[in-house]
Amino acid sequence: MSNSMIGVARRWTQLGDTDPMWAALTDAGRGGRWDPADFLRTGRREIDAMLSLLDRRGLTPKMGTALDFGCGPGRLSAGLAAAGFARVIGVDVSPTMLAKAREIVDDERCEFVHDEGTELASVADDSIDLVYCCRVLQHMPTELSHGYIRHFLRAAAPGGLVVFQLPAEPIGLVGGAMKALPAPVLDRLRAGMEMHGTPTAAVTRLIAEAGGVTVSVEEDRSAGPRWRSHLYVVRAEK
Question: Rounded to whole angstroms, how far apart are CA atoms 116 and 7?
């Protein structure tokens, strides 16, 4: 495992040990705690919204196998199963996050896999009908997130879909000021959740090099108000 991956795994294992649901989906209006049923309902709403977006873009995923990368406590894995996928693979680097997923997700279509490598070796080539990844790639160094995007397309079946979120850059006065802060200070301010972005042009170029076609780039708010973020809808062509 690379040093960068060791750091990511350690950070998210610690967060998962403290409060995995809150670390996966922070909501200032909830007073710092999630009820598991409410937490899982947010996943179903997010997946339904994503599938509605695909429909508007003229894309209908095959409802076979879905991959939830960076699944955490299983919020989106459960949502994918509820939406009708026959099999859902939730992959995460954190054993504490996966333990919570296995505790709160009671659906035999979902399986949760610990994968701490950088090659996504637990997922076979051309085996996934839909890859979904949101609020994950932003929390790892750029070289790791770009490598995973390549592996999403490697794992996607021909004609399969890859949908992932990634910020582009900080915005506004606060976002701009954060660029000047030392990394240790930023780490404390973000409660251990580092943030990284990639310009849109670089992402679409990476997609093309990895054998994907960018169908659309959607405005997205998953990274919060201090970042410009996008949801990328990609078709795998092989």
Answer: 11
